[in-house]
Design brief:
Helix content is 31%, strand content 18%. It is α/β, with parallel strands linked by helices. The protein has a five-stranded parallel beta sheet with strand order 5-2-1-6-7. Helix 2 runs parallel beside helix 4.
């Protein structure tokens, strides 16, 4: 068993607090085993970039931008000087803020690159819609928020 399990959680404006913090409170009972990095999808350098907001307007400052995460975890040590950083699980919480993101092909390509690097991917609620928009759920079964299922699935 590995000594650490590193989780990358993607944040965006108007994510649902319960969708992020609820699962983390359940799956991270041993803080000496699990580590967490929050990744904002604004692609501005963290922590000086824009903060992500929970749907009630409370700000959350991420550790990395999406672009920084791709550099840190997606390139070899020889290219970047990073010390062989890796992550184990990509976590995409739900929230109404993901709706405009499904129309951004550049952003979806970047999320898809992180999906390809992850040993595990899990989503909560509408986070699966964002994952599906990357094409990485094609041919797989998934669940999502039933209210938006018809709006975001092909017939």
């Amino acid at each position: 068993m590995p000594t650490k399990h590193h989780i990358l959680a993607l944040l965006y404006n108007d994510f649902e607090a319960l969708d992020l913090f609820g699962p983390l409170g359940s799956i991270v009972p041993r803080s000496d085993y699990y580590t967490l990095s929050l990744v904002n999808m604004h692609n501005l350098p963290a922590p000086h970039g824009l903060e992500s907001t929970i749907k009630n307007g409370i700000g959350v400052v991420a550790h990395l931008s999406l672009a920084e995460a791709l550099i840190r975890y997606g390139t070899s040590n020889d290219e970047t000087g990073w010390s062989n950083d890796h992550f184990d699980t990509l976590f995409i919480p739900g929230g109404v803020g993901m709706l405009p993101l499904v129309w951004d092909p550049f952003l979806l390509r970047q999320i898809g690159q992180l999906v390809d690097l992850a040993a595990n991917v899990f989503t909560v609620c509408t986070g699966s819609v964002l994952l599906a928009a990357t094409g990485k759920l094609d041919g797989r079964k998934a669940t999502t928020n039933k209210r938006i299922y018809d709006e975001h699935t092909t017939k």
